[in-house]
Structures are given as structure tokens and as C-alpha cells.
Write a structure and sequence with these properties.
Keywords: Transcription, Transcription regulation. One of its GO terms (molecular function) is transcription cis-regulatory region binding. This is Regulatory helix-turn-helix LysR family protein. Helix 1 crosses helix 3. The longest helix has 15 residues. The relative contact order is 0.19. The chain has three helices and no strands. The two termini are 19 Å apart. 57% of the residues lie in helices and 0% in strands. With 63 residues, the chain is an all-alpha fold. It has a domain of 41 residues.
């Protein structure tokens, strides 16, 4: 596993904002860039980090 500092920062900001669009604004990224970065991190980690499908994206609890 080799996540970049940028990916870790994006994960943190999404967790704080609980919304990809708000996180994108806070990071000065596009929403699609945040979504791609989270998806890449999830593939790297082999786990879903955030639930999608609503206006909020709550963190997934560790199993």
C-alpha cells in the first residue's frame, strides 16, 4: 500500500465534510477529481471508505 499524501488529505477532507462536492470546494479540486482519488484509494486499500448515493457520504465503519 502506497497512498500519496494528496490521497490521504483528500480522504481526511471528505471525512470531515461528509460530502464529495464540499470536499472538492475545500480542496480546490473538481468533484470528479475527488471521486477518482477516493476510488483509487479504495482500490489500493481493498475497502470501501465512504458510502455513496445520497448528499452525505458517511464513513464506513471498520469490520
Amino acid at each position: 500500500m502506497d497512498l500519496s499524501l494528496s490521497a490521504l488529505r483528500t480522504i481526511r477532507v471528505v471525512a470531515e465534510c461528509r460530502n464529495f462536492t464540499a470536499a472538492a470546494a475545500a480542496l480546490d479540486y473538481t468533484q470528479s477529481a475527488v471521486s477518482r482519488q477516493i476510488a483509487a484509494a479504495e482500490r489500493e486499500l481493498g475497502a470501501t471508505l465512504f458510502e455513496r448515493g445520497s448528499t452525505e457520504c458517511p464513513r464506513r465503519s471498520a469490520a
